[in-house]
Amino acid sequence: AAEDKSFKYVVLGGGVSAGYAARQFAKEGVKPGELAIISKEAVAPYERPALSKAYLFPESPARLPGFHTCVGSGGERLLPEWYTEKGIDLILETEIVKADLASKSLTSAAGATIKYDSLIIATGSTVIRLSDFGVQGADAKNIFYLREVDDADKLYEAIKGKKGGKAVIVGGGYIGLELGAVLKLNDLDVTMVYPEPWCMPRLFTSGIAAFYEGYYKNKGIQIIKGTVATGFDSNENGEVKAVKLKDGRVLDADIVVVGVGGKPLVSLFKGQVEEAKGGIKTDASFKTDVPNVYAVGDVATFPMKLYNELRRVEHVDHARKSAEQAVKALKASEEGKTIDEYDYLPYFYSRAFNLSWQFYGDNVGDTVLFGDNDPTSSDPKFGTYWIKDGKVVGVFLENGTPEENKAIAKVARLQPPVENVDQLAKEGLTFASKF
Ligand code: FDA
Ligand code: NAD
After folding, report:
1. Is any atom of ligand 2 closer than 6 Å to the C-beta of 195?
2. Which ligand is nearest to the CA of 347?
3. Which CATH superfamily is domain 130-260 in?
4. Any transmembrane segments, and where (predicted)?
5. What is the mean pLDDT of residues 237-262?
């Protein structure tokens, strides 16, 4: 039955940020009964990136408890027992349906009230659905989205049941590229569809994308660009059978995976807290304009010091670091102290097949492609520098060693000047290793 509770600290959300916040609370010192983590998921916080990668592998897939936070960054794995030992209440399978920031109280779907002194909002993102923009037939069975472990379990079952069948991936972003690869590894016949002229257009240049598209084609994945799914046909059991495209083509499909973007879960707080750029506006300590309320991870729009701009970031590295920053700031404030401003260097990465790339910094300005980006090479290694106002501001690298990845991160942080762009293209990685 619904039970009313009260805590000194509540983290709303049980994802990546929540796990790293819990660990930081434990480091700073938290007394039993002071902290609760509330999640609509049934499991303790875990490293979400595993869901689109090793979780779906055909052989020895990753499973919980293997990837609870904070293993993703090489840290301690926080099992459910850890929370019990620390006296942290892990309130699972509990969806908060109402938040009243004025009275510092949350209400669960079951009708329980949870009170707090300080709140950290860590509700993350949810998927954008094709039904959100009225795509016909989009509620057919075997059309999947991927956000939480429950979604991954359903997809995994379908993959097992449709071996040798046809899969259509709608979307050419992170989910599209990672799922296209993993479904192919599962022996499905994969076709990807996306509206843009090349994949991952928000980050990739045409030169970067050409490598991945070529590599995927060589793996036997069909790629259809410049069009969108406008409808789905299903059989008498309501299972998807075909994807209808705007350009008139019809693709057979036993499984469809949709990855057309995410949106931050901020609706609970509408009108109660200042927003910016689709997220909850915070300062450099992730404090919102409401006293004792913080926002971290995907939902936070924070000052990015390096670029002197408010930004929102939907990636795991920031989810981890923002959570740690917020908890440090919260604990410091109790002693009347402040901490250093968050000074974030954007870091994004992805892995698929034997590929692995990292990106640091800002993808603005002119670009210089370097290295071997032939998708048929046995050991391709290439990258791109972004140059703005005569300085390198962003670097992308496929297949870098740990040292090389460290070097490109350093360059993106230091923003060294570039005198000669042709020279930079020739030097390639050598340029980065000088710093
Ligand atoms: P996250 O989404 O992790 O957690 C939010 C939590 O809040 C969830 O547990 C949710 O159930 C809960 N919640 C929301 N509303 C609630 C409510 N009303 N009541 C109770 N609970 C509620 N990034 C990257 O850099 N590299 C990568 O490889 C990947 N890979 C990747 C794969 C997949 C499949 C996804 C979906 C995402 C990634 N990402 C990624 C992005 C990364 O995982 C993401 O940025 C972080 O998980 C964000 O962390 P948060 O804690 O903000 O949200
Ligand atoms: P995304 O924003 O990366 O990509 C969305 C893609 O959807 C666009 O690139 C476009 O190709 C496509 N698209 C848009 N409208 C479409 C339409 N009507 N029909 C077909 N395609 C359409 O979002 P995502 O891939 O769905 O990822 C969801 C969230 O998960 C994001 O926050 C992302 O950062 C995160 N994620 C990150 C990683 C990673 O960092 N490695 C991996 C997986 C997921």
Report:
1. yes
2. 1
3. FAD/NAD(P)-binding domain (3.50.50.60)
4. none
5. 98
Tell me the per-residue pLDDT of 54-84, one tens digit each, with 9 for 90 and over.
999 999 999 999 999 999 999 999 999 999 9
ipTM for the complex shown: 0.98
* Average pLDDT for 212-222: 98
Q: Which two tokens stand for residue 289?
A: 């304009």
Q: Is the CB of 261 inside a 6 Å radius of any atom of ligand 2?
A: yes
Task: Please write the tens of the pLDDT for every residue from 17-45.
Answer: 999 999 999 999 999 999 999 999 999 99
**pLDDT the model gives residue 367:** 98
Residue 2 has pLDDT above 90, yes or no: no
Does residue 34 contact residue 89 with C-beta atoms inside 8 Å?
A: no
Tell me, in angstroms, the distance from the centre of ligand 1 to residue 123's CA: 8
Q: Which of 410, 192, 174, 395 is nearest to 298 (CA)?
A: 174
The answer to whether the CB of 170 is under 6 A from ligand 2 is yes
- Nearest CA residue ID for atom 15, ligand 2: 260
- What is the CA(335)–ligand 1 centre distance, in A? 31
**From CA 67, how far away is CA 317, in angstroms rounded?**
15
- Indicate if ligand 1 lies below 6 Å from the C-beta of 298: yes
b/e map 226-263, b = 16+ CB within 10 Å:
eebbbbbebeeeebbbbbbbeeeeebebbbbbbbbebb
Q: In this predicted model, what pLDDT tens digit does every residue of 153-202 receive, in sequence order? A: 999 999 999 999 999 999 999 999 999 999 999 999 999 999 999 999 99
Amino acid letter, 32: P
CA 420, chain centre distance (Å): 36
The Cα 289–Cα 294 span in angstroms is 9
Verify whether ligand 1 is closer than 6 Å to residue 262 (CB atom). no
Question: Between the CA atoms of 258, 262, 266 and 271, what dihedral angle is there, to the nearest 10 degrees?
Answer: -100
The two domains 5-126+263-334 and 130-260 share their CATH topology (first three levels equal): yes
Q: Enumerate the domain spans of the chain.
A: 5-126+263-334, 130-260, 354-432
Ligand 1 atom closest to Cα of 14?
9
pLDDT of residue 3: 72
Q: Is 194 in the pocket of ligand 2 (CB under 6 A)?
A: yes
Over its C-alpha atoms, the chain yields an Rg (Å, rounded) of 23
CA of 47 to the centre of ligand 1 (A): 8
Residue of the CA atom closest to atom 27 of ligand 1: 49
- CATH class name, domain 354-432: alpha beta
Q: Rounded to the nearest whole angstrom, what is the distance from the C-alpha of residue 143 to the centroid of ligand 1?
A: 20
Closest atom, ligand 1, to C-alpha of 17: 51
- Measured in Å, residue 74 CA sits from the centre of ligand 2 at 26
